[in-house]
Amino acid sequence: MNKNPIGVFDSGVGGLSVLKQFLHYLPNENYIYLGDTARVPYGNKSQSIVQEYARQATEFFIDNEVKMIVIACNTVSAVAIEAVQKIAKSIPVIEMIRPASEAAITSSQNSRVGVIGTRATINSEAYIHELKKYDKYSNLKITSTACPLFVPLVEEGYLQSEAAELIARDYLETFATEEIDTLVLGCTHYPFLRDLIHKILPHVKLIDTGEAAAIQAKKIIENENISAGIEAKDGSNIEFYLTDTPYTFTNIAENLLGFKIEKIKKVNLD
């Protein structure tokens, strides 16, 4: 048994979709949520800058004695995983790309998989490389596209707006012609737009990277017997830290997680 917290890190509100999945699969754990809201989005920044931000977040978690680090950001998972693991050492690190890729391959019936993500994630080709590891017969066709405007839409709470639908239809039209049957939501902000994406691609299975990661984390915690075993409700087991406190964060978090957030602490990672 280990009551130390699980650290969940993202550039903004996107990681809350991952946190929600972890609360579902691992409800009896303590959590620290760290949102680098002062520097969101990460997807249009250089690799070296993202790596530096990831190092700072990892050091914050080390200082807070976490027992597991969850990189709840596909951009960091794509370009900075090694930087995190180097600092984390023996602490398990859960990233988004490998679990989601395995889930996508398992899901697809026609070997046509789509991936959407930030520019940094798509340009890294991390999903292409990972998906191909699970393609035993080399007949997998992968279609990927960057959707850079999705993150600001989510951060500003424009989830059901006409503008969001117009942008989404423009981004996603290529997947209809490619006849994909599975789409990886390769950014943790994108599950907030799940209903909209499903409306445009109704017959496509959507892979939530946070859910795939939570399932992997559950296996590790059970195998290593490090469950906290606490009883918690209404977010009493979560500490929230932000590098800035945007007006929309609390409303988005409370609507998604389903409980009142009483306190958010501000932290400087520099």
Description:
The protein has 270 residues and is α/β, with parallel strands linked by helices. The chain has twelve helices and ten strands. It folds into two domains: 6-95 and 211-266, Rossmann fold (3-Layer(aba) Sandwich); 97-209, Rossmann fold (3-Layer(aba) Sandwich). It has helices at 15-25, 47-63, 74-79, 81-88, 97-107, 119-124, 126-133, 150-155, 162-178, 194-200, 209-224, 247-257; strands at 6-10, 31-35, 68-71, 93-94, 112-117, 141-146, 182-186, 205-208, 238-242, 264-266. The strands form two sheets. The chain has a six-stranded parallel sheet, sandwiched between helices. Strands 6-5-7-8 form a four-stranded parallel sheet, sandwiched between helices. The longest helix is centred in the first third of the chain and has 17 residues, at 47-63.
